[in-house]
Amino acid sequence: MARDKTEKVRQKIIKATDDLLYHKGFNQMSFSDIADASNVPRGNIYYYFKTKDDVLAAVIEYRIEQMRLMLDAWNTEFKTPLERLKRYANIPVIELANITRYGCPMGSLNTELGKSQQELLLISRKQYDTFLVWLKKQFKELVPDQDAKNLAMHLLILTQGLAVLAQSYGDKSLVRRENKIIENWLDSLV
Amino acid sequence: MARDKTEKVRQKIIKATDDLLYHKGFNQMSFSDIADASNVPRGNIYYYFKTKDDVLAAVIEYRIEQMRLMLDAWNTEFKTPLERLKRYANIPVIELANITRYGCPMGSLNTELGKSQQELLLISRKQYDTFLVWLKKQFKELVPDQDAKNLAMHLLILTQGLAVLAQSYGDKSLVRRENKIIENWLDSLV
DNA sequence: GTCTATATGAAGATAGAC
DNA sequence: GTCTATCTTCATATAGAC
After folding, report:
1. Chain B residue closest in CA terms to A159
2. Which residues, including other chains, have CB under 8 Å from residue A95's CB and lie 6 or more apart?
3. Which of B30, B109, B111, B113 is the best residue to mutate to test the A interface, defined by the most A CB atoms within 10 Å of its own CB?
4. What is the mean pLDDT of each run of 10 residues along chain A (190 residues)?
5. CA separation (Å) from A64 to A128, B117, B171?
6. Nearest in space to B181 (alpha carbons), one of A158, A34, A181
7. CB of B47 closer than 8 Å to CB of B54
8. Res. B5 pLDDT band, cuts 50 70 90
9. Which nucleotide is nearest to A3 (CA to C1')?
10. What's the rounded Cα separation, in Å, for the pair B165 and B175?
């Protein structure tokens, strides 16, 4: 069916653009790059997406779907909020090569778009929102008497700062060292 | 003298570009932008700087000079390392409007250049180096028995993460809240 | 040193043949 | 649905008159 084919090509473009966006940034990523990476002829991309902004929106939507799947999996895999929070804090260690080379896919994009593309920032920021809602829920369960929203934001800040410095210096040992500090902090809350 | 005039115009371009770079990012900042902001005709910029990369290098050099002046002033103004470290941690509060709108001038640039302009990252990163050397010295004096280098890096991570989130959400109260957490951490070290 | 005109290339986006 | 050719705009950079 034509409908299915169209959707398949769309997904192929989105997945290829996801990596491209992470590796080059939004403004440095061109339609030619997208065409090359997705193996879809240059002009055809416009059949699936009207503008570059539309491609970005589709990639963000895709990323958030993937995130939700991941968080759902963590919810069943890990029985305690502490284990779940540690799993989150462990992302930079698991994604060591990528983080030290390209930074955080969410943070680097928000930083770029926040300069002079505020409308796009609002779309991209939903990635943070998705994590923050989940983190808040975990902290609420972990320490019901404390402000879960602030704790969630604080943990996000720690991981984002780590990503920025890890990328700037391409330093893997930094990631491992700071990860332990974050784990110790989480333990200290209980 | 012609020599002085040239140097004056150079400085005018550098100062205008400093703001532009912060507000738009390196790749989104054009020569036309630089010409407009510095009130130097478009073609003339090339008389003072051969390439865009050269302008960037000059701006970074200028920023680092300014930083050194600032740190020297802090060294005399504040008598204890704790006061100095708190002054550093207080930058995001003092620069509240800018940080919540454009993020950190060093961090956002490093994040951008780190994607696919590694040669330029090496130049830009010297901004971090300048702070890290100074921070390390303060921590060495504050807590001689602890690893000053790691503490300096940790403080830098905290402020950089804060800048990323503050910009993404344009949230001023976040900056104030996290600043207190950082101050409490510094106090706890002594 | 100053400025205008322009070369050259690549970007986003569109038209229209197949 | 697919693909090529092309429009338009804006970028970096240069040439050369003044």
Report:
1. B161
2. none
3. B111
4. 83 97 98 96 95 97 98 98 99 98 98 98 98 99 98 99 99 98 98
5. 9, 28, 23
6. A158
7. no
8. confident
9. D1
10. 9
d(CA B151, CA A154): 18
For residues A162 and A107, the answer to whether their CB atoms sit within 8 Å is no
- CB A30 within 7 Å, strand C: yes
Phi then psi for residue B25, to 5 deg, are: 90, 165
Q: At what angle do helices A81-89 and A172-189 cross, to 10 degrees?
A: 160
Residue A3 has what pLDDT? Answer: 73
Cα–Cα dist A106/A4, whole Å: 30
Rounded to whole angstroms, the Cα distance separating A99 from A123 reads 22
Tokens linked to A56: 């970005």
Question: Inter-chain contact A164–B177, Cβ cutoff 8 Å?
Answer: no
Residues of A in contact with B154 (CB under 8 A): 178, 181
